[in-house]
Protein 1
Amino acid sequence: MRGVRKTFGKKVAVDQFDLEIERGSLLGLIGPNGAGKTTSIRMIMSILFPDAGELSVLGKRSAVESKDQIGYLPEERGVYKKMKVGAFLRHMAALKGVPTQGVGRKVGEWLDRVELPDVLSKKCEELSKGMQQKVQFIASVIHEPELLILDEPFSGLDPVNMRLLRELIREQCEGGRTVIFSTHVMVQAEELCDRIVMIHQGEKVLDDSLADIKARTPVTSVLFEPMSGHRPGPDLDAAAALVRSLGPIDDVVPHDRGLEARIANGTDPASAMREIAGVDDLARVELKRPTLEDIFIGIVKGQSGETEAELRERLRSGAAVEEVDTEEVMA
Amino acid sequence: MNVSKITRVAGREFASTALTKGFIIGGFIVPAVLMAAFMFIGPMLINRGAPEVVGELAVVDKSGEVFERFRAALSPEEIEAWQADRVGATTQGVQEAAESGDIGGALTAATTELKVPTIRITNLGPDLEGDALNEQRAAVRDNSAEDDGRLALLMVDPNATQRAEGETDFGGYTLTVQPKLDPRLIGLIEGRAQRVIREVRAENSGQSVDEILALSNVRGDSVVYSAETGQERDADTGIQFVVSFVAMALLMMGVMFGGQYLLTTTIEEKSSRVVEVLLSSCSAFELMTGKILGQMLVGGLILVVYGGGATGALITISMADLIPVQALIFLPPFFVLTYLMIAALMAAIGSAVNELREAQSLMAPVMMIIMVPYMLGIFIAQDPSSTLARVTSMAPAFGPFVMITRIAAGNVPAWEIAVSLAVATATALASLWFAAKVFRVGLLMFGKPPSFGTMIKWVRMA
């Protein structure tokens, strides 16, 4: 994608968007709800068409010419409710150009793989939401696509199924497929992806490998926990006061399971950590590496007019469907 | 454009509609059962449902010559004999009409059957006048059989059987009846009254009624002769009218069945969000084309089954010559073109709304395309060569409905059919072009349902 722009009425959904993806990579497209992830994906899929800019997919001028080589699991997933699971998957496979011969065996193998061996003859509406999601995942990979696009694939899944799906996505990538994985839950991208593209308000704000992003983002905090525990009380206050008095520490604030010491600018994190470790009666001391969420907030803070807390809240809230509203378009 | 994907979408669309229990039951079994009920069970129920009438029939015979004969003509024995003849004839008539597939005839025959009434005939004398007469007429109320009340009052004019001095016309009678009296009983009373008056008049003039009837009765038949089969049948223009109207109804049925299902399945795919998965596999145009073609097969199936049934019925009742061969030839092309026009609009509407309820307001213009020719249908079928019929049959949108009615009703010049086909083709193409644009944009639009104006903006946007 080069210089891609898409507007709906007066709303600019995606602007000046450049994206080049290497074959075989697992790219995380991340950003809060409404950032423009789904619109970008729909343009890649040729479901929407850009107002400006260029786009090519798998060497073709648009996905229209290469739809059979692309697997797509949209954010808003649906099935034919009255159709049986086997028939639905065979239909989707046929639409993707899979020859009829052998497709039944493939469907069976995939259902076994996602731990749904008994649903072949059940109607889709009889399945739970999580089960339907697994069926939809099969529909997106049954034709062994070269490019797999997954839009918020984990939303609505329980932890067990999340782990299963994570494994399946990794398998796809290890099998040589290019995977684009969109999510607003940055931890998920951090666990899976080797390259991250961050979008905010329709514009790309970061595009790099996860390793490089981490490497060049300085460690600015040390987490520690007093021996007496991490519940609020005099012991925690005393430990905080003690660490705050150390030279290289700017501030100490509560953190999930203890305290977080913010290292003063220009201070070597290793030396700050050593000093904190010298404090008596600490059960745990560790460097706090910035998460993707911290990095994202660091980049966009000040741009959107939202406070850090509001941004974090928005990132952690459930996925909201990026729908195109009739009135918005006609505004 | 990928033909195999279009075929696949069309196949699923057809299977998910036509191979369902709902379609088979609603489209074929229920109509067949209803038809059977009309033909056989209905007449049986009607026969058994007729109420037995018990009550009084008062007579004011101002002529002084009618009462006794009238009472004799309505004696229980006379009525029973008359009824036995009629019931026998009626039952046979129902049976014959039902066997020949003439449902209307069967119903008419069945409804003429009447149980034997128990009527008490009272003579109120010849001198009842003014308020006294009106009082007696008022006594004819809406009585129930249990009341044994007055069913009717027959007043025979003084000059009913003898002309008054200097007059050329005879007088008659006035029958005052209960508001809800069985029309068959009214017919019986009037028939007997007329017969008796006619007999008295004939006797008074020294002639025989039978002779007069024989002199005045001229038998005549209008027939249609088939040179191919050498057979002749009654020339019944009513049936021709029905045949041409049925041709229009068949076209409407085929078009609306397919169109309505297309609207429903499109809305379902959009609201269940499966549409985005489909759009990842084929283009919006391929999806729309496949859906339209799939439902065209559904509409075509309806057309073949119902049209075949109607044709079969005409052959069965030896009216094969009424089958409008020209209409059968032109029905398929007109069906395809009309269906494409309506279905494209239905697909556009389905893609633009989120639920069936929202589609109602957008459906109004489409329904007008159906309703206008339907309302004009009677006039067009009656006079298929009128200016109205000729102009509307070549008009865009509803032209095909009118033209097929004209073709079924009689010979239409070939050039008029060609113009109608050309206009229908242009309309279908315009409709498809419009729908393709709306479909592409509308499928991913959610929120407030659009107006037609908004859809036109989408067309410019797409």
Protein 2
Amino acid sequence: MVPPEWYLLLASGVFCIGLFGILTRSDALYFLMSVELMMNAANVNFVAFSLYYGDLTGQVFALFVIALAAAEVAIGIGIILVLYRNFGDIDVTVPTEMRW
Amino acid sequence: MVDAFAYVPAVVLLPFFSFLVALGAGKYLPKGGAFGGIAATAGSFLLSLWIATAVAGGRAYNETLYTWAAGDQFELTFGALIDPLSALMLVIVTLVALLVHVFSLGYMNDEGETGLPRYYAGLGLFTASMLGFVVADNLLMAFMFFELVGLCSYLLIGFHFREPGPPSAAKKAFLVTRFGDYFFLVGVVAVFATFGTAAFAGEGSFPALAEAALAGSGDVWTPGGLELQTWLTVVGLLVLGGVVGKSAQFPLHTWLPDAMEGPTPVSALIHAATMVAAGVYLVARMYGFYALTPTTLAVIAFIGGFTALFAATMGVVKDELKQVLAYSTISQYGYMMLALGAGGYVAAVFHLTTHAFFKALLFLGAGSVIIAMHHNEDMWDMGGLKSRMPVTYYTFLAGSLALAGIFPFAGFWSKDEILYEALVHGLNEPLLLGGYVMGLLAVPVTAFYTFRMVFLTFHGEPRTDLAADPEPVRWNVKGPLTVLGSLAVVTGFINMVPVQKVLGLEGIDYLHRWLDNEWGGIEGLSSHHYADLGPYSSGYIAGGEVPTVLVGAAVSLGLALAGLGLAWRLYNVTSPTEHTAKLGGIKDVLYNNYYLDELQVWIAYRTEDIAGGADTFDQGIIDGVVNGVSSVSLLGGSRVRRIQTGLVTQYAAMLTLGLIALLVLLGVNGGWFL
Amino acid sequence: MSSVAPAWSALSPALLLGLTGLALLLVDTIRPNERSNTSMAVVSALGALASLSVTVWFVIAGTGHADTGGAITLLEGAVKVDTMSLFFTAIFASVTALVVVAAHDYFHDHQRPAAFYSLTLFAATGMALLAVANSLAIVFVALEMVSLPSYALVAFLKKNRGSVEAGLKYFLIGALSSAVFLFGISLVYAATGSLIFGEVAGQIESLDTLSGVAGIGIVMIVGGVAFKTASVPFHFWAPEAYEGAPAPVSAFLSSASKAAGFVVAFRVFTEAFPLGASLAADINWVLAFGVLAAVTMTLGNFAAAVQEEVKRMLAYSSIGHAGYALIGLAALSAGSAGNEAVMGAAMAHLLVYGFMNTGAFLFVAMAERWGIGRTFEDYAGLARRAPVACTAMAVFMFSLAGLPPFAGFFSKYFLFMGAIENGFLWLAGLGAVNSVVSLYYYSRVVRAMFLDDPATPSALDAIDVRPTALYAAVVFAAVATVLLLPGFGPVIEAAEAAAAALF
């Protein structure tokens, strides 16, 4: 059996990749994908430690998370759509009318 | 027999009802609701007299009437505390409020002001909140009414809100006093945290607990193991912050001269009996606490003495009637603070009483002059009003003599007692002695500016057409003036301590006996008890008590007369000039020593220089500091808002950085990375 | 009554909100072509009020109270109904009712307002669920249930660039925050092997080498809470979202959504990560909250002081108030008897804040409805045209500033006092300094409305309508703010009792 620390490392790595994507990309779709990565990093933890503890809660919760992530993307796509209509672009750095 | 104390809430509620009536139905009432206010304050006044009689009958009252909110560890309650001090104050406040209401008929209604319901509603609420403050039985309740008083003053000072001046003056009054009040609030919280109660009187009251704790019995909380005496001093100073703001003491006095933008009757109420008096009253109310901390007392005395002198010198160069009175108020409250700091509890209350009457008188007199002059307040446009408005003149003169401290008017007795207390206690205390010297120096200055004002306004020849033909005033102006004028003459006789000491007449120091619970009162709230607590011992000059009394009185009276005389020489002429070069008069040149005239002129110039300097300091430095603090805050704000760049990717970056910072902080704190 | 009714009925406040949301969808489906603004508003207001009355009834009847058998747990301990959950559900339901009533006038000329009502009700359902969550899984699901409709609500004005920009920023920061939050949960799960609060708490003390993992997880959970409560450094969405969103939505988010964040924080950090055990495991989350509280209130108040637009000022002030409420978590010390006082005071502050802040934003909604501008200057002289509404606004402003004798003063007073009692003098002092700053900008609004003259005589001619429902909502909020004066006693007692059950 793979030691649990390795799962932690994998999950953290995926999480950081997602975070890196958010910090460096200004395209809204990349942003969404990066968030997906971060959430799936958490899912790796849930599933792995569910196995480790012999407890099904983590696996069930991972399913919940997948569903919620899908719902989040749906809302996100909707917002990106109206963003495109109003600003003519899906670059998240374009709308800066409100600040300070 | 019906118990007088059952009507204590009614004293507060009557003006409050007049507020509601004026607010709700003032439009439909004759005179904009004025009669409701007059009836309510008259009722409160009668009830106060009754209550005072009950106290004189040997009783007192200290009850919790309503529990507002009770939490686990502290509760907010409303109650009433009636002892000789609050009974006296009730009478003063209701009397002055009543007279101000009557006077307002002449000043506001007859002058055709608009928005009268708003005005009378404000007056009613103002009076009610002050009365609530006076009867408060705990510090928190006092604080709440203290705040209400501030709010009402904001509404009333800004009454003429369509003009540019009043709203900004109102705002300034509000903000400056509020600045002090925040210290007060922290002080209230500290009192709660320390003692678990904020009651003024009784076994478990906070002064009693503090006394017990200092004596070594009883345990109170102090932050961070601070020494008890130090912590009590800190608490005392915090509460003092509110007092300094409300009683317009240096350096938070700047709001008061600006507050002259309010209607004159409101100024009378603010200066004589309500807002400004609230600060001094608060110190007197919790004097059992202050008497325990010598450092606080010394600070109070020094601030008081300094303010007395500082404000008096500024009064010398003002050209507007009400401005002079404003600075005189600051100065007189400085005296009261000096008295409190010097252990002269009775002297302070005495001066509070006499000052309430003569200052209300002076303001109403000034109001009368302002009516006559069609709202021109510049004294250089007046002159010669003496023969044209005799009632105003003679009452105003009585008030001025009292303010200047001329024997035997009210102000003489009280001011003399303050200086006496400061002297005998100050011989061993350098800081207190400094306060005394400044208080003494302020005496001639006070007399000088007071009579400069009187002479410029009433004596000589009219300098404008307006002054030659002033508008007549009616009974509703003359009536209050007459009442207050008589009081300004006689109030001093309630406490003729010098006479008692010199002639050996026992028992004519009625106020001393009143405040010493001789007739009735609450254990632990007597002047005697405070004197036992206080840190001071008495020292005498010139070999004993009686000579000290005589020397002190003679010196202060002499200085007052000197100031009066100087004003007489400089301004009691047909056509006085601002620069006193022409003074002396050609006829008198031979009679008088030429060099004396030179000296007078020189003094006048120098006084103006010093006073002008003080004025510049006031406008430049103090206002500058207030403005500086606010602009630094705003600058900080405009820096902070720049963080919000509008770029969402930068938000994400800063969010991540913040999270990492938190992780590092807790990680290092908890040693996770080891 | 818990002995009579089935246990699930304890959830009826949340169920009522959810059913109302579904009913709204039904109404919209039956009459798809009509602009059924009024009927939607009526149905949603009735639903919210029904939920509120059931909640109040439960509080009075003592459901979940220690006297009537203690907290009611459902779903294998994942849900827990107690006094605190009812207390907060009351806040959510009240704010929801006010907002939907006000929205009726605000969306008077909107093409299809129907979605607004169902989204609001679903978000409120999520909040009610958050209040009863007793498992990190439920917390996350409910949090998303609040967040997802909120994103859509902020971007509700699809043709308004401000609204869309606000929605975008809110969504992006929200997605990032919930990912961080979720990862934090996964780390806690990895360290403790459970998601139920009580079981997590049992494991925290015996973590040993895993305490670092749990610690990082807990800090990430703090981050998720900070996002929901609009606390620094997760606050960046708030000024924009509150400014750009339709004003009723701003009111909803800044009052109800913030309170929802706090209810989670209160429960998670007392029941899942109890202070004593966390400290034993070297996880000093109180310190984290202390830092957050200090920074949040300072940033919020100072930035609010220099705003030109009233709505954005309110947005920053809302951040500042989050800082005050965080004192309820920051001024705790292990085993201290004063903990329940300070946390109870924070809860009471959130309740008072719910009314006064909602009212203030609804006043802004009214100004937007009239079409006068957004800056302080645009509000000049407003009191002459709309004295009642302006008086209500003055009450909100003074109460927000914490001026006695308004309710905001009491809650702040109890909060600072509790902090001092627990030895956190510096936090209370900082709070007092911030209150001074706040007075400056709140009084600017009052001054503009009552003392200043309009820029041009015709500037206020736009005020030609009397939006009845908005007026009613604003006045009701003002009355509630005032009534909380005599009613503050019961409120603080209920809040302290709720907090006492947590420790």
Protein 3
Amino acid sequence: MRFLTGVILTLALALNVPSLAFAQSSPAQSSPAQSSPPPAKHVRAELVSDRSGIAPGETIHLALRQEIQKGWHTYWRNSGDSGEPTQIKWTLPSDWQAGPIVWPTPQRIPVGPLMNYGYEGAVLLPVALSAPASAKPGDKITIGAKVSLLVCADVCVPEDDTLSLSLPVTASAGPADQKWGPAIADALTKAPKPQGLVAVFQSRASNVALAVTGSALKGADLKDAYFYPFESTVIDHAKPQAIERGPDGLTLTLAAGYGFQGGKSPPAMAGVLSIGSRAFEISASPGAPPPGASGLGPPVSAKGADGADLGLVAAATFAFLGGLILNLMPCVFPILAMKAASLAGHGGESAAAKRQGLAFAAGCVVTFLLLALGLIVLKGAGAAIGWGFQLQSPSVVGVLALLMLAVALNLSGLFEVGTSLQGTGASLAGRQGLAGAFFTGALAVVVAAPCTAPFMGPALGWALTQTSLAALTVFLALGVGFAAPFVLVAYVPGLLSRLPKPGPWMEVFRKALAFPMYGAAAWLAWVLAQQAGADDLAKLFAAAVIVALAGWLAGLGQRRVAMGEKHLVMTSAAGLLAILAFGAVVWPQDKGAELNVEPYSPARVAELRGQGRPVFVNYTAAWCVSCQVNDKVALSTHPVSSAFARHKVAYLKADWTKRDATIAAELANHGRAGVPLYLLYGTNGSEATILPSILTPDIVVKAVEAADKH
Amino acid sequence: MSVMSRRTMLAMTGVVGFAPGLAKASAMLGEPAPGFEALDADGRTRSLSEFAGKTVVLEWTSSDCPYCAKHYGSGNMQALQRKAVKSGVVWLTISSSAPDREGYFTPNTARAWRTKVGSHASAILLDGDGKIGRAYGARATPHMFIIDGSGRIVYMGGIDNRPYADPASLKGAKNYVANALADLKAGRPVAEPISPPYGCSVRYASAGSFQ
């Protein structure tokens, strides 16, 4: 056993023996006792300088140049999920100083499901070298560097190099070294520096939002934005970083790393924010993301032109089919049936019928194109005023979910939309001749609007992310599809008799179509839950209930209108409620005061009391309404959080949402069978004070002050 | 029945109830450890649930990695294993290297390696398809996890505070695993439950991400 250990030790030491190094002027001596040649190195390391000499008191830059074998890589100061950064130990004459490595922006090097940060190919790692004022011009000094680096491909090999460099001390600042001066200067310029960017980070349910704003980011192309942290425990390096743009900067959604486990949070997140061409050093402190860091959606990728072509054809086909199906909508069908019947009235005048058909098609297509133009203008304006149309923003998702719900309620018959519009349009469409046909087409599109969401939604959403030309093409296809059956009927009169007659089946069809819309609303609610968490989901549900109430009131109002009764109160109430519901979803909420929460355990309580700190234990559960109310009304307020901070109160949460025997036992100990229970352990070691079940900030603050007095 | 044994029984029921079907869950401090099942070097199927009620140490290793060699070459790891196993801890060494990558273990090569380095681990688990590694988010070798008697993860991270390959870095290093085991033995909560794992990357097969 000992013999084996000895053999292994010897082998390990032998592998780490420094082998022949590539130095600029003097190679290190190899041990004469070494009989076998050293293993081939994967990194050719040399020490270079940007000046050919250095003056007393001057600072120049040396650099460690690494020429890395193809397929291998060395590491950045945070190597990522594995690996080790290059280290340099300097041997300098007395009073000479070498600074830290100025790390160039690293590359991402994925290794299977893991992620490393480092360098491939060739890299220069500059280091500042300062000569003391006492240096004597004419001296030649030798700078030694013991470099230990890890280079990996499929395997990892630690490589050590002992390098040295001789530099003359000159009377005045010398010229730049021809070979390395420009290269080192370039490396220094490109290295990330602080540029006055303001960064904050906020821990969310399962990820961390990092918001960075500043003039350097305004108007920049952010599609390659990535955050390289200096510490290896703040983020999960392998997970992708979602980018949300804002007028002042961006917000990255990062997967939390070990540093956020156990209810903790790192005091700061420092690192490098790279946006492709440029990189900045940032240091984020905890805080809520400012509004200017989001709202413009994810970056639109300039590439994807080939993909877009195929996508355009597919989307146009889909839109054409959607347009065809739109004809069956209960909103549209009666009008078309009426118009088709009037076509039949032309009898054998097929030429006139054909012209009518084409005029109708023109009306449809023009209206759709106008709609498209309107949306393109909105999108352009939206980009300037900070609206996001994509599904990245929880507010947009919430609004869409409420919209889907409203459409579904409309389809279910709770209230009607556009009856007045239909009334106006009908008179226009009643006109005979080509103008009548044209306006019928336009009317049909307008009236189809409430029913089109399930089919137009995807085409619309996709079209808005593409170029204006693509959007117009999609809408054109929609219009053509929509008009096609009518045109067909105009050209083939025999079809007229085969058309299904309007009847009660349309109502049933319409009510059945409500259910996909309910499904869409439910799906969007799920998306919101993923993005924003349980609290925002609760807000959405509350807003949905208000929307349903508003819809019912609107329906009541409309029925009263039909019966000639007073409806103003009801209709305005409905309108106000609808505005309230949508506003609640869009309004950014003040998160209140964030308290530093730890999970509860009896051992932790004992430990904290041993440290002489007051301990506040909140026995709560997600399904306990009074607990949630107390949390929002009392515990998340600023007076309470500052009282906790002042008296160094530790806040422990005993979450009884799922069964927990320990917590149940503790509740029983205090004579309770359920939650909430608020215990405050004072500093004098006595029994815990039980706070009332209904808390106000005042009660908590007074109790904390009393507990800390003893 | 006393409260204590009732609690232990409840806890054990919890572990047995939790253990199967959690292979896809992510390892979080304080949460129940994902259950797993794998073949060991002696050809027996081992599972986390068979060690319910005991403290379990999971050690990810790779026979080719210089960081593991630092600990094995110096005898540091074996001594830690022996001390732990003697005090009733279960020590599982796991290799998640894929079949075509360095450090892959078959039962034969695992046994040969065990003899060569003198491992005192309770078992060496062969996780060639990377299932256990991915369930725990094991990213480096050595990467250590400690699971307490109630089945919860109480330590996750590196083995010590010297993330270097140089064997000289062992001198004066603070061994987080040894300290955590001492804390558990004394009935204290683990003082430093998290540390950055370091070493060579675990040699998974493909680019699929963790859950």
